[in-house]
Amino acid sequence: MNLTPTLVIDAHLSLSPLLKYHFTYQATILLNSPLLILSSLSLSLAKAFLAILNLVNKALKIMALLLFLLVLTVSAVSADEDAFVGVNIGTELSDMPHPTQVVALLKAQQIHHIRLYNADRGMLLALANTGIRVAVSVPNEQLLGIAQSNSTAANWVSQNVVAHYPATNITSICVGSEVLTALPNAAPILINALKFIQSAIVASNLDRQIKVSTPLASSIILDSFPPSQAFFNRTWNPVLVPMLKFLQSTGSYLMLNIYPYFDYMQSNGVIPLDYALFKPLAPNKEAVDANTLLHYTNVFDAMIDAAYFAMADLNITNVPVLVTETGWPSKGDSNEPDATMDNANTYNSNLIKRVMNKTGTPKHPGVGVSTYIYELYNEDLKNGPLSEKNWGLFDAQGNPVYILHLTDSGSVFANDTANQTYCTAKEGADRKMLQAALDWACGPGKVDCAPLLQGQACYEPDTVSAHATYAFDTYYHQMGKTPGSCDFNGVATITTSNPSHASCVFPGSDRNGSLLNSTIPAMDSKNSASPSEFVYKNVFFMANAVISVLWIAVLL
To answer: What is the rounded CA–CA span in Å between residue 94 and residue 78?
Structure first.
């Protein structure tokens, strides 16, 4: 019986840096020199074993590095997927601000997501290097040309997306707007337009960064309450079915315009005003879906869930909903009594808090729904009733139409729309505690309290409370309005009232930017990256570079 082991090594380096080892044992009988054979065998096995250990060690290092890079990448992507609140920017104003003024306002308000109704060159240039995430749009009047020609779509993407990316952080393309209801004759060509734009994005290697979809009116969802019975208007199934499959295959989202104001106005009293405004309801006033037993406290959540159930009715279950428009008018005609500043403030404030707190819906609790508020400016040139001109958060000068109430809403709109959250001394606070807090702010807190000196702009009124308010607010702004920076052992509070007076101007009082850059064209010009995006790209660059070096090391 032969017992001599033989080591066979095959080195295959075509697809893997690791060597493949195969051991075969041949049975042989060696009666002569058994010690020499065993010695030789031990030495060979030892060398082979050491070689294997060396390669395994290299492999483990490579795997560990790749795993680390993967974690970084996933973290960057996950951070990128948090629910957000953005704004739509319409341009039907008689005095449209210059793009640089618009961007200054966005930055002052910490608005990080916007949607444009076109791909205006002036705005895209002004948004460059701001990190603001931008949804651009193919206007309805351009749909036909794009749907009929792949090259037209490619040209549109080249001029309006590739030419600005990544300096301008374009994240999505809205192909048309409410085409099925606003331009039904164009519905049959919508899928072609989507596919041609997507093909151009893929050809530009931007399909991971930029998603393509089309905003739809929520009115295409029928029998929306209870949500579990909702379904899409079947007239549009020949368009909706391939469209939803397109969104599913490209990892995009269903863009939906949801207006509880119109649902409320058209309900003839069936929908209570509080239910439309996200106001708290008594348990017996909540709407209950009899099929799922889910409780609904507002129209917005019910419409979101109705969209998910309507998609499920068409066997689509993994396309997320993105709300491209929602809001409430602040003024209306005599037959629009609920279009008021108070109701608009209530709706938008509650909406923002719900999204940023990731409240979610009854069907998907804890999953925030990204939403664009309609809209940044009041558009005085809009046709229709008075309410159509008054959906904005600001007027053309950048003045707030109303002050949002956004306690605990996170960083977005941290300036309560008017860029005016201030830190002031609490009324009735203990004078000695105020003085101690004032001393700390002007000392260890590193606040420049020179304006409080006699003869300076903020000396009057010469009271501890007034001086403390200036010091508290300055510190609050220096700290970026972070949670806890307006407390001072309980003697300070946040307010939306500007404490500036006479020539004493408090930090953050300037609401709007006025710097013009003459190299940037105005809005609607005929000449028609965010940090996480750079992290995402740099991770892959670093990974590729490191892997290349390791490959060379292994091969050598």
So the answer is: 41
Structure-token pair, residue 381: 């040139």
Mean pLDDT, residues 439-468 taken together? 91
Could you tell me which of 512, 446, 511, 508 has the C-alpha nearest to residue 473?
508
Residue 302 has pLDDT above 90, yes or no: yes
- What pLDDT, in 10s, does the model give residues 371-391? 999 999 999 999 999 999 999
The mean per-residue pLDDT over the stretch 437-441 comes to 93
Q: Is 92 a catalytic residue?
A: no
Furthest-apart CA atoms within the chain: distance in Å: 114
**Residue spans of alpha helices (H) in 81-236:** 99-108, 121-126, 143-148, 150-157, 179-182, 187-203
For residues 307 and 221, the answer to whether their CB atoms sit within 8 Å is: yes
Check 286, 325, 336, 427 and give the catalytic one: 325
H or E stretch including 221?
strand 221-222
Burial of 78 (0-12, 13-18, 19+ CB in 10 A): exposed
Question: How much is the pLDDT for 390?
Answer: 95
**Active-site residue identified among 141, 178, 286, 427:** 178
Q: Contact 359/368 with Cβ under 8 angstroms?
A: yes
Considering only CA atoms, which of 404, 402, 262 is closest in space to residue 336?
Answer: 262
| Pairing of β 492-495 and β 133-138 | unpaired
CA distance 101 to 83: 26
Strand partners, 211: 172
Q: How far is CA 288 from CA 225, 291, 302, 387, in A?
A: 9, 9, 10, 31
- What's residue 299's pLDDT? 96
Weakest mean pLDDT among 77-86, 162-171, 310-319, 405-414: 405-414
Instruction: Provide the pLDDT for residue 438.
Output: 94
Q: Is the pTM of this model over 0.85?
A: no
Dist CA 95 CA 105 (whole Å): 15
**What are the tens digits of pLDDT across the range 80-114?**
468 899 999 999 999 998 998 899 889 888 899 99
Annotation marks residue 178 as catalytic: yes
DSSP 161: I
DSSP letter for each residue of 49-82: HHHHHHHHHHHHHHHHHHHHHHHHHHHHHHHHTS
Question: Which among 310, 350, 335, 392 has a CA at the least distance from the CA of 109?
Answer: 392
Rounded Cα distance between 483 and 127, Å, is: 28
Whole-angstrom CA distances from 86 to 106, 365, 379 are 10, 21, 18
Asked if residue 382 lies in contact with residue 389, where contact means CB atoms within 8 angstroms, the answer is yes
